[in-house]
Amino acid sequence: MLKKLLPSLLALCAGMAAAPVQASDFQWTDTYLSYRYLYQDVQPGTFKHVRESAVNLSHADGWDYGSNFFSLDVEQFSHQDPSNSLSGGPNSTGSGEFYGLFRSTFSGNKISNTNSFSFGPIKDIGLEIGADWCTQNDQFASNKKLLVLGPQFAFDLPKGFWDFSIHMAHEWNTDGYHSSGGSDNFNLVPELETAWMIPFNAGPVPLKFAGYANLIGPKGRGDSQDAKHATEFLAHPKLMVDVGTLTGIKPGKIDAGVGYEYWLHKFGDVSYGSGGVTAVPVQHAVFFEVGYHFN
């Protein structure tokens, strides 16, 4: 799956970089293509460490009335999480996943052309809308569709950014272990999201502390045969070196570094085996990442 979709991602990224953009269209843009590798991934229903290779294309921009962000992930897993048509032996093909995310924020200060939405440590308050969609061809067979809506608070930092959002979220998903088939329709629940990027220097080394985290409340049963779902929490911090600046190639273009991913109750699920619930799935995974900024 990764090999099939990688050329399309590269073509899309190249097209965005080459497309003419008028100064009045965007106040700023950042398009980032990266590769990351995790060797301790955990999938629902799989009680083994799973290796993961992922290519990500993300884009952020600011315009007259707010900002936009999207992220596209193509992920390939090792045989410990086999595709749903295979047994999972050492020679089998692991599953593949696509995860897409979009967020758009309408700035209170930009729309009102005032500073009415700034106070104390808060630089701005906006209204954020967004959606997630993912599909994966393993036994759990996630086909997540998520809609979110709520206020976003932007903190006033000397450099970089830090945003915090309070959403109401509605999710539809599948669960190959214990739902009756089709798409589970979950309860409307609160969801918290935060994202940050803080540049700093450690002596001569230019660094960025970046990442995101989200918390999704218990969303109930998707249907009568589904299990109850627990609170889901994902944290994805990383420490990146600005290689472009450090080497003198081109400042702000090349990043490389290491991160840590903690994921409790992935997709809100608990792990099931032949004897019922056997463990609470928690992922502790170190990852390595390298990426290139086109803007």
Number of helices: 3
Average residue-wise pLDDT: 84
Number of domains: 1
Helix content: under 10%
Give the low-pLDDT segments.
1-24, 273-278
Second-tier CATH architecture: Beta Barrel
Q: Give the CA-CA distance, first to last residue.
A: 28 Å
Describe the protein's architecture and organization.
The longest helix has 17 residues. Helices cover 9% and strands 54% of the residues. It is mainly beta and 295 residues long. It has a single domain, classed as Outer membrane phospholipase (ompla), Chain C, CATH 2.40.230. The chain has a twelve-stranded antiparallel barrel. It has a two-stranded antiparallel sheet with strand order 13-14. It is globular and about 50 Å long. The two termini are 28 Å apart. Strand 1 and strand 2 form a beta hairpin.
Please summarize what this structure is.
The chain is mainly beta and 295 residues long. It has three helices and 15 strands.
Describe this protein with a few key phrases.
two-stranded antiparallel ribbon; 9% helix; twelve-stranded antiparallel β-barrel; disordered N terminus; mainly beta; Outer membrane phospholipase (ompla), Chain C; 3 helices; 295 residues
Write the layout of secondary structure elements.
Elements: H1 2-18, E1 28-41, E2 50-63, E3 66-77, E4 96-107, H2 108-112, E5 122-136, E6 145-155, E7 161-173, E8 184-185, E9 189-202, E10 205-216, E11 232-242, H3 243-247, E12 254-264, E13 271-273, E14 276-279, E15 282-293
Antiparallel strand pairs: 1-2, 1-15, 2-3, 3-4, 4-5, 5-6, 6-7, 7-8, 7-9, 9-10, 10-11, 11-12, 12-15, 13-14
